[in-house]
Amino acid sequence: MSSINLWGYTEKNFQKEKYPLNETLFALGNGYIGTRGSFEEKSDFGGHDGTFINGFYDYYDLSYGEKYNGYPDRSHAMLNVTNGKRIDIYINNERFSLEKGTIKDYVREIDFKKGILTRRVTWISEKGDEILYESERLVSFYEKHLMISKIRITPLNFDGDIRVVSYLEGDVKNITKENDPRIGVEFQGDELKVLECKIDNNRGEIISRTKSSNLGLICLMANNIKCGDQYDSSYEQNDKSVSHVFNIKAEKNKVIDFEKYIVYKSYKNELNDNLYSEVIGIVEEAFTKKYDFYKQKQKEFIDKFWFNTDILIDGDDATQQGIRFNMFHLLQSVGRDSLTNISAKGLTGEGYEGHYFWDTEIYILPFFLYTNPDIAKQLVNYRYNLLDSARKRAKEMQYKKGALYPWRTINGEECSAYFPAGTAQYHINGDIAYTVCKYVEATNDEEFMVEKGAEILIETARLWLEIGHFNSKGEFHICCVTGPDEYTAIVNNNVYTNLMAANNLHNAYKAAMLLQKKYPAQYKKLIDKINIEESEIDNFEVAANEMYVPYDEHRKLYPQDDSFFDKPKWDFIDSEDKHPLLMHYHPLNIYRAQVCKQADLILAEFLLGGYFDREQKMRDYDYYEKITTHDSSLSTCIFSIMANELGLYDKAYDYFGDSVRTDIDNLHNNTSAGIHTANMAGAWMSIIYGFAGMRVEDGALRFSPHLPNQWNSYRFRVSFRGRIIEVCVTKDNTEFKILHGEPIMIYNEEKSIKVV
Ligand code: BGC
């Protein structure tokens, strides 16, 4: 039997050097609250404890040596909020802490089926008192404002005094910028000001407010102890923190049970009476219903998720664990209210400041779309809700019409201060447009297209007409953009961007035609709202048809952009020990050479596969593979998918191996700053689009499955147009079965079959 935990992740011996990393791996979240897997008791193992609320941020001013037009004046970042996790325990006046004393037994585990984090430690204090410490932590999917800690202490060899001190701490800070552009914020401190810290009705309460974004946060804690009558309790407080203290006369082998209910609620503007009562209601209800009720509800929620989502891999336990770890973390990270989204690091750490990127549309959304389409709907709705900000951003950039989505954001405002690898990535508009169409295709949600999707498509398409131009030959060119590959910046006619723009323009035209013919009233409403002429819509189709895509006839290769092949090749030998390159070289040195951080052209060949023939894909793959560093975790999954399509199965498996356990094995050495959500979903894509060869083309599901040698079989489910379809791939054949919904025609290896 394998020792790998297939439904969880376990730390069997306490490894203090891995504490910061494990804070990420053991993080819990429900898409609203996210909290790092730090211990309850105060510990100093070099970690960065943090609790985050999705969409809760503050602004900071951006300072530039030289500031030009259109540079954002300010950025915003996800805040580390009131800490409700901390519980200190004193055993005969000695503080329980793994920094000292002796650890006799230790196990910590995050359980993907139950959605809880547990720790069990047998610990002997320096004076020789031995306790069994058991904790469970849950961030509720059932009540999104609630987190619960349950602790059980058993004195094993003594009668004596045990003190439990449960804190609510308002004095919290974010990590400030150090030497890595990917981690830390330029906050000055005091972003989250404590307005009120009090004890009321046997509850601790902290109300805080952000310095400049005008967001409020109320955090409550209520504690419950069960240990007979042998205890007294009191409160202590100062301006920023409140603690509930329990002094217990402990007896050997008599269990002390302790539960802590923590409620977080963020709000805009002022805290009014209704909101306040709502929050009190949540904590009171939790206190009445108790932990086990929420534990049961947690399981019910997660059972449903796994029913739609699980992938079963027979024969490769490390991969099995890795892919479930990823899928579980994606669920924990994703906002499900259409006002929040999923950040590059989820809610597990401060890397990338809690920002949402194109990662959502091109990597993460497909995972939700084909497993939990309701969540995907919230993510596309989020982009619709940002449309006004995107229109405003287009104006700031001096465009007369259309919408420009921010490269990185939480609230819709552009946060990117380094435009060559930020704002210049206009492809985000095309990425969002691409996904709107994929969403409608997979769900048949035409209502979304009519009410919201068409508006997104048209407004994003307008921007291409503003930034591109028809040259003297009538070709449509797009100059001065950066494609997905951030090691090549500000180029003309990046193939990925141009093709995604063409797709955007064409689909905007199609959407306009659909509305005009089938929904004339809505069409009229839309064109009046956004003030668009029919000639402009016709121009979308012309620009799409005339889109210029550079091609090198001599090499029979697509250059990534107009000038890519004019550059010298990068010296990979010299830079062997200097990865990621961005941490070792001035950007210009990187931009001047043929070197890629991530899949760019290869991504275009996956997303818009019909545009390229197989031989072309093979030649391009061969060329670009040699010059790609995969310094971005968004890269290897795409190389894996395309290797599968091209029958390069060993490569496909190797790249997949790099992707599926990136975080659990800390392969990029930076998981302590948070998980890599795009890569996690990318690993899912590598199985579904890669090994199983799934594509959705013209509304039809297609498969072309391959079984990796390392596996005996694999089984997964996809949601498509109201159905749940199970696919099982073995050595001998592939079986398709409908688990929910009507029969459907699909293609397997180009053959049309009816799945029942
Ligand atoms: C990648 C971007 C990505 C960002 C956030 C960067 O390293 O190059 O493509 O959007 O990380 O994940």
Description:
The protein is of the alpha+beta class and 756 residues long. Helices cover 32% and strands 25% of the residues. It has a nine-stranded antiparallel sheet. β2 and β3 (33-35) form a beta hairpin. α5 crosses α18 and α9 (446-467) packs across α10. The two termini are 36 Å apart. The structure holds beta-D-glucopyranose. Beta-D-glucopyranose is lined by residues 344, 352, 357-359, 484, 486, 597-598, 632, 634, 678.
Number-wise, the strands total: 29
How many separate helices? 18
The molecules bound to the chains, other than polymers, are:
beta-D-glucopyranose
Could you state the oligomeric state of the chains shown?
Answer: single chain
What structural class do helix, strand and pairing data support? Answer: alpha+beta
Q: What fraction of residues sit in β-strands?
A: 15-25%
Strand order of the largest sheet: 1-9-10-11-12-19-16-15-14
Low-confidence stretches: none
Which of globular, elongated, flat, extended, rod-shaped describes the shape? globular
